[in-house]
Amino acid sequence: MEILSFGVQADEKPLIEKAFEGHHDVRCLDVFLTEDTAPIAAGYEIITVSVNANLSSRVLQTLAAGGTQMIATRSTGFNHIDLAVAERLGLTVARVSYYSPYSVAEFAWTLAMAVNRRIVRASNRTRDFDFRLEGLMGRDMRGRTVGVLGTGKIGEAFTRIAHGFGMNLLGWDVAQNPACVELGMKYVDKEQLFAESDLVSLHVPLLPATQHIINAEVLAAMKDDAILVNSSRGGLIDTEALVAELRKGRFTGVGLDVYEAEAGLFFFDKSIQGVEDDVLARLLTFPNVVVTSHQAYYTLDALNQIIETTLQNVLDYQAGRRGENVLVPAAPETGA
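Given the sequence above, the corresponding structure tokens read:
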């Protein structure tokens, strides 16, 4: 059987082909799954997709009509999939429930330190042989307070690094993580976390309850010199509200690896035609903001885990096994 994989980066292709070798042929496409590209999947029983795929109702209907029965998303998040429609159509949907939390946690800290120590500005200056230090002053992390919003596997890994810096640890989650408590984390309500933290890092999933969890009210309550980092999902932050606060000269720095309207932008080369997104364009003008294109997960270790799990999801589906990664099971067969 040949598997069709959408949205495969050039670095990923040899890893996917090697992992599937001996199991299935795999056709890797660099195009992402959208309404326009969904017809390509006609005749493929199993497809895999990336985090920026569009699996809306119309796309799912096109896939089902073309014979697709199983969708394996190469991501932990699944807010890009209309699960209710998938279930109604009898599609099986599986995700990667776990991969290296260190890839994202370490990158979140990379963003935090980049904005704190003005690394991008410093690098751009030295490339122009400008070796002045004015405007490059940062702050020690030791002794300052970090607020970790979401203390699952990634939040815990982020907290361990913060503990290594010697920071005061504040956390918020629906349930406390004993490992974080052992490190000295104090769980508080969101309001206290935002008001007292010098650095706020987001590690919660995007759900209706967390959509714009960082809104105008929250931003106003944060310290004027705080650092905000988001390596989770773009929809956690009301970007227009963030831009409004940045225009007031607030915040030491903002590091974003995700953006709420990133679909159709991130993972594409827009250097020639530019972007029509005025909010993103305005965001990129601030010297204390660093934006990267959803690359926190993008390490060799994490990609290998993601691909291996995706392969296992495919093999489980074919064997009739329902593993822990299944979000929507196959529709039960009906007989006379």
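The chain has two domains: 2-99+299-328, 101-291. Try to locate this feature in the token string yourself.
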